[in-house]
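Worked Example 4.2. Consider the chain below.
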Amino acid sequence: MFTSFPRLIRCVALGGLLGLLVGAARAQAVVPNAVATPPTHPQRLDDFLLLARQNSPLLRETANQVRQNAIDSLVRARQNGVQVAGIGAAVYYPSVTNSQGENVVGYDNAVTNGGNYAALAQATKPLLNRFQLQNDYRILANQGQQLRNAGRLSALDLRRSITDQYLTAYAAKTQLSFSRSLLGQLRQQDAPLRKLVDAGIFKQTQYLSFYLSVRTQEVTVEQDYLAYRRELGLLRTLAGVADTTLVELAAPAPPPPRPLAGLLAPSQRQYTLDSLRLGLDRQAVDAAYRPRLNGVLDAGLQSSSYLPLALAHSVGFGAGLQLAVPIFDGHQRQLQYQRLALQEQSRRGYRQFLTVQRHQQYDQLQGLLRASEALSGRIREQLRVAGALLGAARRQLTTGDVAILDYLNLVTSYRTLQFSLTQAETDRLRNRFALDYLAE
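Applying the procedure from the previous section yields the following structure tokens:
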């Protein structure tokens, strides 16, 4: 199952160690443009994305984890060097004898020598552990790559949530602008209609219907205003912006079309890195069953007596080797192999499911994009016709040639079409950005 891992692992070994040394520098890729001056009152999508990247604690934590991984590689290198430790001991073994000189209570003096008094400096150095050391470096390199890939995934998720909320807020702003414009047009008709009512051309009840429509539109403007403030506030919350100034959001520029990303996509690359990690874990199991050899050197004093004269004559040093050889552990090695094999099966299943899912999403979004673009075109054409009819009716209304109720019906139809266009345009932009995410 893991026969393809060694070649991939050697590739990781060549570039992984160097990547660990420059991991802190590459961590800036997780939070790009970190020193850019943020805008005081952001109004564009790019401004909110910049602020969100700079303010995100998750991206900052991921960057710190990448730096910690680089430090871990240095720690592992130090662990393979000479380790010096101080050892101190002051142990007394009392004994009680009877009148015949026989030991009644206490350890056998031949074993304890009566006590142990020591002050040593001991140095140890692992020997002949190149296989385990290189595998540990490869594991650390793989961890660094996974952290950087997780940072890219987090940045992509952040961009997706900020963009989606920006589109929602911009749609609310567009609807508010339209509601205000329509209210202004209705108010312009108020004075001419009163004159026509006073002249007896229109009945008072017809004017009351128009008056009620104006008041209803005023309520609609207030509702749209509150909706825009709410969506803009939520956008600022997601981006970590403390500004509360009411601004006019700029129209978002749709990204150019791009093909579906393949195995280099962060979501796909995660499973490639997991595959490498499983191979390294298997080699780590093999390394744990290799003999371990350490060189040991100590120097100091060690005596069975605490008397100064005995301590003065007990200064010395020693050197040697420590060898540990695994013999039997109840077949744990094979059990660990089986555990890794099950993890590999799960990884392949997730990878296959994600590949099918991404292709299905890409094809579906392309179909939805074409449909939303066609729908927007049809609504724009209907809105153009409705606008022309409304303009003609507005002119005829001042002369009494169009009934007020007919004019109000045209206003209602125009309002409905404008709302439908706002929704269709928002859906079209969401589909465009969703396709762009799948191209990452």
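The chain has a mean pLDDT of 87. The longest strand covers residues 115-127. Compare this with Example 4.1 before moving on.
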